[in-house]
């Protein structure tokens, strides 16, 4: 298989969102809301169970009134905000303004950390002549996150679900990425962490390589495995 394009998922693949505790603590400090530590821990655990942090743990259960918007949450910015603030509102926080503040916090570049090997792997792929796209189910523009962490220069194109109105595993989003790279899907590999969503690229003929969605300090070099699947273009040209 000749690999000319590499498609990467965002959350859980190239970047990882901060912990629920860090997310909540940052917003509470900004709003000057002081809580006893025991109460803080209880709120953080409840938000985690609710799945209120985008990019974090999945909900233990989606409340029936949110099931419809949850199913299409990545097709538009409005649905994404409604789904996640709706889950957060299942937890009775001390101030009503905290729900939107929490949602806004997760879009900040400082809330995300790249995996330790992300820059190395993207840079090596470019050296080998492989074009790179980010394919993400998301409801907001993640390009500022890549710019802030110095990775935007290593990405050729972005295919974001809310900009196309379609979400993975629909093959349409992967096709949009391949079209932007001017690469045939049969010459591309999709790297992600979600067996269902990211493996949808296989319907187009893309090779699929999965990594585990782990905290940054527990997954130092999983992305490097992708380099072993690809020929060194510089060596074979």
Automatic annotation (TrEMBL):
InterPro entries: HAD-like_sf, HAD-SF_hydro_IA, HAD_sf. Coiled coil: none annotated. Pfam families: Hydrolase. PANTHER family: HALOACID DEHALOGENASE-LIKE HYDROLASE (HAD) SUPERFAMILY PROTEIN, PTHR46649. This is Hydrolase. It comes from Streptomyces malaysiensis. The lineage of its organism: Bacteria, Bacillati, Actinomycetota, Actinomycetes, Kitasatosporales.
């Amino acid at each position: 298989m000749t690999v000319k394009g590499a498609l990467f998922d965002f959350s859980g693949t190239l970047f990882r969102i901060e912990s629920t505790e860090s997310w909540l603590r940052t917003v509470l400090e900004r709003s000057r809301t002081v809580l006893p530590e025991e109460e803080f821990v209880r709120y953080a655990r409840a938000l985690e169970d609710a799945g209120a942090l985008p990019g974090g743990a999945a909900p233990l259960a989606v409340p029936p009134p949110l099931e419809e918007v949850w199913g299409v949450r990545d097709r538009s910015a409005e649905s994404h905000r409604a789904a996640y603030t709706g889950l957060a509102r299942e937890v009775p926080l001390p101030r009503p303004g905290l729900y939107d503040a929490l949602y806004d916090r997760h879009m900040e570049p400082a809330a995300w950390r790249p995996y330790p090997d992300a820059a190395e792997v993207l840079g090596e792929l470019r050296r080998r002549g492989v074009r790179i796209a980010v394919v993400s189910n998301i409801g907001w523009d993640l390009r500022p996150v890549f710019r802030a962490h110095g990775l935007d220069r290593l990405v050729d194109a972005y295919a974001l679900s809310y900009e196309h109105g379609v979400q993975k595993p629909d093959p349409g989003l992967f096709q949009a990425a391949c079209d932007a790279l001017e690469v045939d899907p049969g010459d591309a590999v999709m790297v992600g962490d979600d067996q269902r969503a990211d493996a949808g690229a296989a319907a187009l003929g893309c090779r699929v390589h999965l990594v585990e969605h782990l905290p940054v300090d527990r997954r130092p070099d999983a992305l490097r495995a992708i380099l072993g699947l690809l020929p060194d273009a510089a060596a074979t040209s």
